[in-house]
Amino acid sequence: MIIAILALFFTVVLSGFLVKVFPPNKTKWLKMALAFSGSYLFTITIIHLLPDVLLNSHASPYRVGYWVLTGFFLQLVLELFSHGVEHGHIHHHQGRVGSMPFLLLGSLFVHSFLEGSILVEQGHAHGHGGGHAHGSDNFYVVLLGIALHHIPAAFALMSVLMSRLENFRKAFLWLLIFAVGSPLGIIVSNTVLSEAAPDGLLFTALTGLVAGNFLHISTTILFETSPDHHFNRNKLVATLLGLVLALLSDFV
Description:
Blueprint: H1 2-16, H2 28-55, H3 61-82, H4 102-117, H5 139-165, H6 168-179, H7 181-196, H8 201-224, H9 233-248
Helix pairs in contact: 1-5, 1-6, 1-7, 2-5, 2-8, 2-9, 3-4, 3-8, 4-6, 4-7, 4-8, 5-6
């Protein structure tokens, strides 16, 4: 659990420094990173998260479907406030210099917290046959997916904060709100929620929500990285690499 907390926190923190390396108007690398992470997220949702939550839960598979739908449309609502920062949108965020985009930060925190909440250590949330929110074999697979997703999101958020505050130090301090979201989700799930809902039903709901969330984000990324269905070799390669990495997780 400590490894996951530190990994997700420092992924966001270190990604915030990318604004010093890559100008926000030079986003070719960002599109490649998004295509890669979107493909990885989509694949692990299909081959890991959804099978796990359907097989390792006391809840009816039909009820799980409602949670997945809820997560999908919840992300749609969150993006009304985040304006797509989760999938690398930087433009249309200028606003008034010196003002803080509190709704954007709040929506990203909720998004990040939910992602961290499904990273549950074995034995903390039980389902059928000792299962839990997702199989322990998939813990690091999902952890990697969240981390990969947070890299372009943190860069986009830091770019927005810099455009508003025009000060790296102040922007970086606000970035920490996003950085602590997933670690707090991990801590709450592995302590408070594991005691409050030992039957695993709450973790079923959380995993269903996040699976729907991932489906929305990943498909949006994949559609946006190929506007008008124009062929782009680099994006195609990045997408296939994300797919292959996620598929290889079955053999590790």
